[in-house]
Specification:
Layout lengths: L1 H19 L10 H18 L9 E4 L4 E4 L6 H39 L1 H38 L11 H8 L1 H12 L1 H6 L1
Antiparallel strand pairs: 1-2
Helix pairs in contact: 1-2, 1-3, 3-4, 4-5, 4-6
Membrane topology: Multi-pass membrane protein
Main location: membrane
GO molecular function, one term: photoreceptor activity
Amino acid sequence: GIVSLISLAVLSYERYCTMTGTTEADTTNYRKTWTGIVLSWTYSLVWTAPPLFGWSSYGPEGPGATCSVNWHSKDINNASYIICLFIFCLVIPFVIIVYSYGKLLCAIRQVSGINKGMGRTREQRVLIMVVVMVICFLLCWLPYATVALIATFGKPGLITPAATIIPSILAKSSTVYNPIIYIFLNKQVSKTL
């Protein structure tokens, strides 16, 4: 899940850099692509390994069908890890996504002022993709984060195992939605396919 979140942030930033860069994109050089992949997996590993070394722990999630961070433990060790996960694996990637796509839209808007017909169509396509990406990001991860925070900081038993099923499925299925969004809303990708 964290790889998915970080990959979205890296993709949005890379897309912003590519679209606003002054040079042509080099389709034969995969160095930036591999750097993004390695960065995503390394960052995710940094944030998923601590429970293996004693900062919080992993355990059954919801009805026991999946494994996740122990959301129900109320000790400071667990609560501090949950807060860090929330900030560094949800809030910061979301801020990067909003910043990157916001800056990209501003750049496209400036260009569309010069070339009204082509720029306006491109701006609308990018705007639609940005809105869909942000809404899907929030729909997939916000319920899961909310349930986790309530389970960690709310009254014991407030979140039942059954109540965690849908947010968990939404969060874990986000890896399926992201490629679909890019394929159908990115003209370059859909033309290639």
